[in-house]
Specification:
This protein is an alpha+beta fold. It has helices at about 5-15, 20-30, 35-40, 45-50, 55-60, 65-105, and strands at about 105-115, 115-125, 155-160, 165-175, 175-185, 190-200, 205-210, 225-230, 240-245, 250-260. The chain contains 6 helices and 10 strands; from the N terminus they run ααααααββββββββββ. A hairpin with a 2-residue loop joins strand 1 (about 105-115) and strand 2.
Length: about 260
């Protein structure tokens, strides 16, 4: 059997032989263990070589007499494999587009890679969903803005002398009472404390804090101060709750009082 017959292995694997050559090669294959073994090893790469046409295979058969033709043939095979990788990349990009239909990602441009151009995915703008307009202006100090409703019994107070404003929420707990509060119009710098005054006239300091120079809920700092504290006193035992300012000598003076308890 001639060398050309052995080179028919690749052409046979790709299915580019005509009927006569196919029958001739199959007769040869039945008696040539070398071609049979070579054909078996080529099965995994048939998919990569399937894009090579018959002319390329003919040129491959001639490379044993023309070394320059071998180089050109190998270059053609490399180019075909590169194109196969590009096709695989295109398939991946298409899958990204399908997934992006749900997540808001779409094809927005073309990126150049060598001589090939491959689509790339970019995020697309979507129309934001907004709530219906309200005729009532929102209070930026309201903790319920944003859908997080504050737990507890609400009490509001504004001191006519100091101008300090507060909103407190009282929640009965097994351990006593939890107090959540906001403070605004509170100038600084100063030191403050939160005092619970019981119905039996006893008092309890349940929190202390420092107010910076800009204060809270002021022109310098529009954000209110938010605190949470607890007392062992039950809800029904509390007469009033007071925010006090402490001077350098430790003397306390009221800033705002919630007394409607």
């Amino acid at each position: 059997m001639s060398r050309a017959d052995h080179l028919d292995v690749a052409a046979y694997a790709l299915g580019v032989l005509d009927q006569q050559d196919t029958e001739r090669f199959e007769e040869h294959l039945a008696t040539c263990w070398a071609c049979a073994a070579e054909l078996e090893t080529m099965v995994p790469v048939v998919g990569l070589l399937s894009g090579i046409d018959g002319e390329t295979m003919t040129a491959l058969e001639q490379t044993h007499t023309d070394p320059a033709l071998l180089d050109r043939t190998l270059m053609a095979v490399r180019l075909d494999r590169r194109r196969a990788r590009f096709r695989q990349l295109l398939a991946t990009a298409a899958a990204v587009v399908v997934f992006g239909g749900v997540s808001g990602v779409g094809i927005a441009g073309i990126a150049g890679i060598g001589d090939e151009r491959v689509p790339y995915a970019e995020p697309t703008l979507t129309t934001p969903v907004t709530a219906p307009p309200s005729d009532v202006p929102a209070d930026p100090n309201d903790p319920n803005i944003g859908g997080n409703e504050q737990e507890g019994e609400q009490h509001d107070a504004t001191d006519p002398t100091t101008g300090v404003k507060t909103t407190m929420w009282l929640t009965s707990k097994e351990y006593g009472t939890r107090i959540d509060l906001q403070l605004a119009k509170l100038p600084g710098p100063r030191t403050c404390r939160l005092v619970v005054i019981r119905k039996n006239s006893t008092t309890e300091v349940i929190s202390t804090w420092a107010v910076p120079g800009g204060g809270y809920g002021t022109n310098s700092n529009q954000l209110p101060l938010e605190l949470t504290a607890s007392t062992s006193a039950g809800r029904d035992d509390i007469e009033k709750i007071q925010v006090q300012s402490i001077d350098a000598k430790g003397v306390a003076s009221p800033l705002v009082t919630v007394a409607d308890l």
